[in-house]
Design a protein that fits this description.
It is a single chain. The chain is an all-alpha fold and 278 residues long. The protein is 49% helix and 0% strand.
Length: 278
Amino acid sequence: MKKDSAKAAGPKTGPKPGPKTGESHTALVRRARRINRELAEVYPYAHPELDFENPFQLVVATVLSAQTTDLRVNQTTPALFAKYPTPEDLAAADPAEVEEILRPCGFFRAKTRSVIGLSKALVEDFGGEVPGKLEDLVKLPGVGRKTAFVVLGNAFGRPGITVDTHFQRLVRRWKWTEETEPDKIEAAVGALFPKKDWTDLSHHVIWHGRRICHARKPACGACPIAPLCPSYGEGETDPEKARKLLKYEKGGFPGQRLNPPQSYLDAGGIAAPPLGAG
């Protein structure tokens, strides 16, 4: 039976200090995989937090998510996809009209160039279809390895590790790697897990980074994997104070998606409000 997520996130007694560093590679692999198993029980409903209905919507949304929140992208893309539902439509769009729609996302001029450019590339080079191979995806304007793995893992079911800012922060806190460059982090962490686990691992780590293991004030006292964390104590260790730092559904607030999966709603999660609501 899976743990109740609220209970798992906030132990009544303070968690024990984490393990010491200097472990063997075998011990590291075991600890890393145990952390992933624990997070899978805490977040059994973890999912990509960008709203999308097809690979085209996902690749565009992921490009737009640079330097902004998934929530703001999700609040913006309904109007974009309503007006430009296909790569052909967006490729032929008036940039000024796209810029106006994308203004809430920030860096809207550069993002407009990227999404129109990638749409033109899809039409001219891939018959209007999003390719399902890494080497093709990274040729699209605005698409790097991180974006490509988001698309491959979540639109095509092909395993990939998404090394975003949350992922980078947590795997270094957990001493899975000391690498700082995304491609090297991807390789180092990927070597600790079976390839089939990579996409779900990415969701688990990113969800934990957004909800509990924050950049400035990690909620160490409310962390279900504290006994496995060598960085325990960097944040608030008092359980009651730590609980107040929890975000999204564990704090009673909506998540990032306007249209989240039913499993998330069943777990007590709340859909995000549309742009301009409230």
